[in-house]
Amino acid sequence: MKATFRLAILTLSLLLTLSACTEKAPDLTALTPELEELGITVSVGVSFNKVFAKLGSDMKKPDAVTVIPPDGFREMIYHLPVCDLLFAGRKTGEKLNSMGVFSIGDLTLISDETLSRALGVNGLELKRYALGLDRSPVADMNAHTPPKSIGKS
User: Fold this and answer.
1) Rounded to the nearest 10 degrees, what angle do helices 90-98 and 112-119 cross at?
2) What is the pLDDT along the chain (153 residues), one digit of tens a residue?
3) Closest-CA residue to 79 (of 98, 55, 63, 61)
4) Contact at 8 Å (CB) between 112 and 124?
């Protein structure tokens, strides 16, 4: 069981790395027997930025792959509820809804001034995400951030 799990994780990791480089959906059929044996479901989002990749992984569950391409993301996501966007939680969604913003597409149309007044810099960041402008790198899970300061106690 341990060997099967390790093989499944290694294979999935390789498939996801390759798909991220090519922005094409990985073929998970080779993994199906191992995943079934382990009772694991996999939902994968592939996109040109990590916010949309996460959104894609939530769009189809279980055992599905969703590709959100740079040239077709508006058609795929602008109709979705604004709360589906990463970092737009329930409270933020309620506030946006009270302003007439119900979908991710609606968020792209609201003025920066209005958004900033209501949600501050976080509102502007959400709009950048909705516009597909997130270019932040995926962090290496093995990277260690050095402390910013060392205090005396």
Assistant:
1) 130
2) 554 545 455 455 555 555 555 556 666 666 666 667 777 777 778 888 889 988 988 888 877 778 888 999 999 999 999 999 989 999 999 999 999 999 999 999 999 999 999 999 999 999 999 999 988 877 766 777 777 777 776
3) 55
4) yes
